[in-house]
Amino acid sequence: MTVRSSLNFRVTIGFFAIAIPLIFMLIYNNYYASNTVREQVAESNKNTMILYSNQIQAELNRETQYLYNLASEDPNVMQLSRATYDPDEYVFAKIRVMKAMERYLRFDSIVDFQFVYAVRNNALINTAIPADTYEKLTTVQTTIERFLREVKPGSLYFNEWRTIRYGDEYALLRLVDTGDGYYMGASVSLRNLMIPLDLMNMGEEGFTAFLSSEGKALAGSADRVLPEEKFRFAEGETFSRIRHEGSRFIVVSNPVQGTDTTLSAFIPEEQALHKLSYFQLIIYTIPALAAIVLIFYLIYLNDLVLKPMRVLLGGMRRIKNGDWQYRLAPSKTKEFTMINETFNAMASEIHRLKINVYEQEIQVHKAELKHLQLQMNPHFLLNAINIVYNLAQVKKFEIIQLMCQNLVKYFRFATQTHRAAVTIRDEMEHIESYINIQQLRFPERITYRIHIADELGAACIPPLLLQPFVENCIKYGFDFMDHPFHIDIRIEHADASGQMRIEIADNGIGFSEEMLVELHNGRYFDAYNGEHLGIWNVFHRLNIVFGREARALFSNRPDSGACVAIYMPVRTMEQYG
């Protein structure tokens, strides 16, 4: 009996079968609830990001439209290109353009400053640049002048708002080509665009930021030190989860159309799931309490049922091993006390009987099996002596020597009558000795092939079980055909029930129809008349050793020859006793 079939094992498995799905269900509920809260938080902040992104986009589009209108409709801008050779008129035109841009900037614009750049003489006309320090003002002005000198007409800055770096800060810049050698442009600081988002409650660690197309943080909430790392988010998802500086964040992003930036909100996951803390505590507590209750119940069940069962099984084993004096003590429960008393009474009765009848039957079967095994040796000995005699008449002394060597091997194996079983590998070596004898008698007229499944070579069968069939193949199937007589022996697993199939086939004349009928209906084995001793012997030995677990099937092959298939259990030497 294996451990898996024990009651203790099955009760333990039942315990885990209940506890594990419960724990997994609660863990899944926790995951589902947490993910639902994440989605809701992400959806809420996503809407805010979309709303503000659209607002920024609308403002930038309005600024872009103003630049186009200024470049194409304002007479002062047109006058700049015409007054190139009139210094006084050129100065007045610049002043009028400056006034127009400052008036628009003061009341209707979100940008920090606007400018007009003359490509021919690298002259820059700009509105006041907001700066806290003179150093910052110089940095912005130097950067914009250097950029305008290097920018090409086909640059993306003429198509959309794109980022530009002024020292440590980033801004969005847009250019419009007037077509007369002048560039109109505007610049807006990303930090200024973040000011309305500073009012969002992101917690102590949360923040909002503009990200570049490569995922680098360009500008963020007030007093927030932006990370140097580049962020990568899953595409097509409502939100992403990232780990930054030891904390997990829920990130929602939305690209600002018409720019090369993305507006992102980084919400601390701990803050988002804060309201779930009590729910999570309950979820984690319930499995722990359930596990404790089930463990106590398992201990109680073990003391009430499993322990008495183990005591009962232990008593059965001791009785089985011959300890007839062993008796069971009363149990805690009435039912097991009655079982133990009945067990003690049965043990006493079996002790008195000593199962004498069973022992006598075993002795009778062993004697009969030995008698059947001994019948095999004289039968083949007569045939072998006759073969040696015939070879001596034709003075085939070398063949006689080889044959005697094979006969010695054969009879050394056959005379070991004390063995109840032999391995299939030894039995096949014995059969090869027999076939070698026949090959010496009929050179180049007999061939054979033996195939044994690897794991069956060490399996055991009764000795001299297969040799009679091989002998009958040569005796009745061999008829000096035009081609060599071939014997094929295959030993392999029959199915998953622990049986093996031994097939012995030849290409001879096969069984007659009358013989097949007698073999199939069993009349052939009912009466013993001295003929075909080998097959009759094998059939009765199989019946004594295996009973109904073994059977033999007889047939003719489709082309030619006989086929015998024996099905029997796979056993080891210990199982034969």
What is the topological layout?
Layout: H1 7-73, H2 75-82, H3 87-107, E1 113-118, E2 123-126, H4 134-150, E3 162-166, E4 169-177, E5 182-189, H5 190-193, E6 207-212, E7 217-220, E8 240-244, E9 247-255, E10 261-268, H6 269-272, H7 277-320, H8 334-353, H9 356-374, H10 376-393, H11 397-414, E11 422-423, H12 424-441, E12 446-452, E13 460-461, H13 467-477, E14 485-493, E15 499-506, H14 513-521, H15 523-526, H16 533-546, E16 551-556, E17 562-569
Helix pairs in contact: 1-7, 2-3, 7-8, 9-16, 10-11, 11-12, 12-13, 13-16
Task: Describe this protein's structure.
With 577 residues, the chain is of the alpha+beta class. Among the domains are: 277-354, no CATH class; 362-576, 2-Layer Sandwich (Heat Shock Protein 90). 51% of the residues lie in helices and 18% in strands. It contains 16 helices and 17 strands. A 5-stranded antiparallel sheet has the order 2-1-5-4-3. β1 and β2 (123-126) form a beta hairpin. The mean pLDDT is 78. Residues 303-355 form the HAMP domain.
